[in-house]
Design brief:
Low-confidence stretches: none
Largest sheet: 10 strands, mixed
Shape: elongated
Number of helices: 16
Oligomer: single chain
Bound molecules: adenosine-5'-diphosphate, magnesium ion
Mean pLDDT: 95
Number of strands: 17
Helix content: 25-40%
Radius of gyration: 30 Å
């Protein structure tokens, strides 16, 4: 497709994200909710849908839904019902899914992302509702048969439905990234797309740029990474534009993404869509959420990535890049928050956390919980650099590695015992300068004749003479002053 044709069209995207809740037990039974257990071991008669068994609401899922709703600025409905969504499938033993059809727990709200130009963009959230997962059909283990694992049946899910506000595959990528960050900050879902604890269905349509109405939407499923969500949407946009350009009508359908081929394949069309015959779930009472309950959840909210991002860019004057990286995971952000309780040098603190600290964690496959250096010690390290006692190179290359082994000493103690304190008092530096000048009369002559870049040579000599302990900033300034006076 030529860029000219591509640029005639606008893509329109709305995403439906399913997040598996990190509860101990399932949504409507006391079966354990765990990933990777031996198949069909967490399956009581409730999960198996035996006649006469009754679901019982897991209160934790309500709390988690409120948490997410508050984080998105949603309205939390005071009263809601549960509904049955009826269909037959081997991994759904009850023959229906318990969900919320007309009365989602959260309505309205938004998630902020960056658009293609790096500007803030609000993606509205239509609704968030509670429902249960189905079991898992496994098609690729047995050559002849499909296997069913019902451990996942009844695992609590939150479905997060966006408005069709997303305009490119890149925005979709940013949106899912933000949603995943949010559920991880809230500790309600591990966000692991490979294990499908976070899943995303993409609704994609295209229209001519000046069109008044959206085009026919296609729903794409089965993307097991955020990158694949982006790829599937990109493929779908191109496929739809080409169909329109070739005069082929688009049909409302559900397609599956084939990650190996990078294409989408039709699964079912609208005509073949099921009628789910939603009706109120008679075995669960409607739930009523009191204002006190919402306030109790609000009090326990962790800091949110966007709040921290705005604080870092607006108040601490960090770059958007730094703020984005620091807030990528909650643990790192909270570590940084601790560091800046002890220093006002926010930029240096950011550099340490994203540089030395993060590389150490990455190289050793560690989480910040097991990082030996306390945040206050990082602030001490920054302080001895600021006061000119050690250079940042020495702090990073000599003291930081030592602190990792010996986290009970202060950076200053280590600098002293390792004989690393740099000389920044004028008198001792001047002594070095005078020596260097005396030993290199030729270079001094050339400097006076205008070869000002020789200052680098003199500095090299000085650092050698001081065994690297002269404060380079102070020394450089004094060196120039002295030479220029000659
Ligand atoms: P359905 O009735 O098919 O479930 P909804 O109106 O409930 O459709 O929307 C489902 C999802 O599809 C939402 O995320 C919504 O933003 C998105 N969506 C709706 N219309 C379009 C469209 N024309 N193009 C892209 N996405 C759309
Ligand atoms: Mg719908």
């Amino acid at each position: 497709m030529t860029p000219e044709i591509r640029s005639k069209y606008q893509a329109v995207i709305g995403l439906e994200v399913h997040a598996q809740m990190l509860t101990k037990t399932k949504a409507y039974s006391s079966d354990i909710n765990e990933f990777g257990a031996t198949p069909n071991t967490n399956v009581s008669v409730v999960t198996l849908g035996h006649p006469g068994t009754l679901p019982k609401m897991n209160k934790k899922t309500v709390e988690y839904a409120i948490k997410l709703g508050l984080a998105c600025g949603s309205d939390i409905a005071e009263q809601q019902n549960f509904d049955r969504k009826n269909y037959f499938y081997p991994d759904l033993p009850k023959g229906y899914q318990i969900t919320q059809d007309k009365t989602p727990i959260c309505q309205n709200g938004s998630v902020f992302i960056k658009d293609a130009d790096g500007n803030d963009k609000e993606i509205k959230i239509t609704r968030i509702h509670m429902e249960e997962d189905a079991g898992k059909s496994i098609h690729d283990v047995d050559v002849y048969d499909t296997l069913v694992d019902l451990n996942r049946a009844g695992v609590p899910l939150l479905e997060i439905v966006s408005e069709p506000d997303i305009r490119s595959s890149e925005e979709a990528y940013n949106y899912v990234t933000e949603v995943r960050k949010l559920v991880r900050y809230l500790d309600i879902c591990d966000g692991n797309m490979e294990e499908s604890s976070l899943r995303c269905d993409a609704n994609v349509s295209v229209m001519l740029k000046d069109a008044k109405e959206f085009g026919t939407k296609v729903e794409v499923k089965n993307m097991n990474s955020i990158r694949n969500v982006q790829k599937a949407i990109e493929f779908e946009i191109t496929r739809q534009i080409e169909a329109i350009e070739n005069g082929e009508p688009l049909t409302q359908e559900t397609r599956s993404f084939d990650a190996l081929k990078g294409i989408t394949i039709s699964m079912r069309t609208k005509e073949a869509a099921m009628d789910y015959r939603y009706f109120p779930e008679p075995d669960l009472l409607p739930i009523r959420i009191k204002q006190e309950q919402i306030e109790a959840v609000r009090k326990k909210m962790p800091p949110l990535p966007r709040e921290l991002y705005l604080k870092y860019t607006n108040e601490l004057k960090l770059s958007e890049y730094d703020a984005f990286n620091l807030t990528d995971t909650k643990d790192i952000a909270l570590y940084y928050e601790e560091v800046i309780k002890h220093t006002k040098n926010y930029k240096a603190a950011a550099n340490w956390v994203m540089g030395d600290v993060k590389s150490y964690l990455n190289q050793n496959g560690l989480e910040i919980e097991s990082f030996p250096i306390k945040p206050a010690t990082i602030a001490d390290l920054i302080a001895i650099i600021e006061s000119g006692k050690v250079s940042s190179t020495v702090a990073s290359q000599k003291i930081f590695p030592e602190l990792l082994k010996n986290s009970s000493s202060t950076p200053l103690e280590l600098a002293e015992s390792m004989n690393l304190i740099q000389e920044s008092d004028e008198d001792s530096i001047l002594t070095y300068i005078e020596d260097v000048i005396r030993q290199h009369p030729d270079e001094v002559g050339r400097y006076k004749d205008g070869e000002k870049q020789l200052v680098g040579f003199f500095m090299g000599q000085l650092m050698k003479a001081s065994k690297g302990k002269a404060d380079p900033k102070a020394a450089n300034q004094l060196m120039r002053q002295t030479l220029d006076k000659l």
